[in-house]
Structure formats: structure tokens, C-alpha cells
Write a structure and sequence with these properties.
- Keywords: Chloroplast, Plastid, Ribonucleoprotein, Ribosomal protein, RNA-binding, rRNA-binding.
- GO terms for molecular function: rRNA binding; structural constituent of ribosome.
- Part of the 50S ribosomal subunit.
- This is Large ribosomal subunit protein uL22c.
- It is a single chain.
- The chain is α+β, with helices and mostly antiparallel strands.
- The protein has one domain: Ribosomal protein L22/L17 (Ribosomal Protein L22, Chain A), CATH 3.90.470.
- It has helices at 23-33, 38-47, 53-70, 126-131, 136-139, and strands at residues 11-19, 78-96, 102-118.
- A three-stranded antiparallel sheet has the order 1-3-2, covered by helices on one side.
- The radius of gyration is 20 Å and the shape is elongated.
- The chain starts with 10 loop residues before the first strand and ends with a helix.
């Protein structure tokens, strides 16, 4: 499996793992916010009546705080470039029943990945990321 490239100059990731909710219910909310701006996303999530919106709200708020801390960018300039929900493990419990028997209960969990992109910054070239600068002799004419 190939690893996807991550441009740390203009993007910030945030992960939430083992959230006790099915991935299908989370995707219903995530599909509404993918590709929107940070401020618009927070307004949408506050007004949604679903239980899944609160963990996503907290995660996006955390990702914006990471962006302002690491890159020094404004939260208003952020855009949700990637929002992904994957299935996690099942929490397994036993429910006691009649005559000393027990029934298994499987509660699904999910993992969320949010990537915020800064609209105001431009991505750096390969040479700028590798050497920290670009000289006119490096480019070649």
C-alpha cells in the first residue's frame, strides 16, 4: 500500500480514534462539511441535530488550534481539504440473560481524519522543502 504524501507547509492533520459510534452515522455528517471553510463548518455542526456532530466539532476545533500553533496561520483562512471516516474495532460486551446464559453485544467504533488546508499560503516546491531555499542555479535554464 502506498503512503499518501502530506504537505506539512500548508496542511495540518487531526485524528480521533475509537469513537463509540458507527462509521455510517459519522459519514452522514462528514459528507456535509467536506470542502467547506472553517467558519462555515462550525456553524453547520452547531446546528446539526445529530449526535455525531459533537466529536467532529471538537476535532475540527483541535485541528484549527494545531494550524494556528504550528504554522501561525489564522483559523478563518482554513479549508477542510480532507475528511475521512474509517471503521474501527468492535467493543465486545456480554449481556446477562435468563438461566445463566449471556448474549454478546458488539458496539462499533470509528476513526476520523481531518486535514485542514491554509487558503492563503502557497505550497513550497521540492527544492524549497529539501534545502530550505531555491537558488537560480538549482533550477537550471
Amino acid at each position: 500500500m502506498k503512503k499518501k504524501r502530506f504537505n506539512s507547509d500548508i496542511e495540518v492533520q487531526a485524528f480521533a480514534r475509537h469513537i463509540c459510534m458507527s462509521a455510517h452515522k459519522m459519514r452522514r455528517v462528514i459528507d456535509q462539511i467536506r470542502g467547506r471553510s472553517y467558519e462555515q463548518t462550525l456553524m453547520i455542526l452547531e446546528l446539526m441535530p445529530y449526535r455525531a456532530s459533537y466529536p467532529i466539532f471538537r476535532l475540527i476545533y483541535s485541528a484549527a488550534a494545531n494550524a494556528s500553533k504550528t504554522m501561525g496561520s489564522k483559523e478563518a483562512d482554513s479549508l477542510i481539504s480532507k475528511a475521512e471516516v474509517n471503521e474501527g474495532t468492535f467493543i465486545k460486551k456480554l449481556k446477562p440473560r435468563a438461566r445463566g446464559r449471556s448474549y454478546p453485544i458488539k458496539k462499533p467504533t470509528c476513526h476520523i481524519i481531518i486535514v485542514l488546508k491554509d487558503k492563503s499560503k502557497k505550497p513550497k516546491s521540492f527544492l524549497e522543502r529539501k534545502y530550505g531555499f531555491v537558488d537560480k542555479y538549482m533550477i537550471g535554464k
